[in-house]
Amino acid sequence: MTKSIVCALFIIFILGMMVNEIEGQKQGRCNEVLKEIDCGAGNCSALCLQKRKGLGRCVTPEGQDTLKCYCYYPCV
């Protein structure tokens, strides 16, 4: 019984996060390449959070070999 409850709560949590992400996309997301930092060990996420209150991700752009720090944040 407790496993069922935990599983149900987990599913509700995941669905809530998905709805939140979809709502964020409707509001508009902007992005910026943070050139002043190298990707690695959470540096990208920390700088993005500090600078734009957003989510930083290290991404390899098409046709390039190096990672770039993309900061995704809500457009205001």
From TrEMBL:
Residues 1-24 form the signal peptide. InterPro entries: DEFL. It holds the Pfam family SLR1-BP. Keywords: Antimicrobial, Disulfide bond, Fungicide, Plant defense, Signal. Belongs to the DEFL family. This is Defensin-like protein 141. It comes from Camelina sativa (False flax).
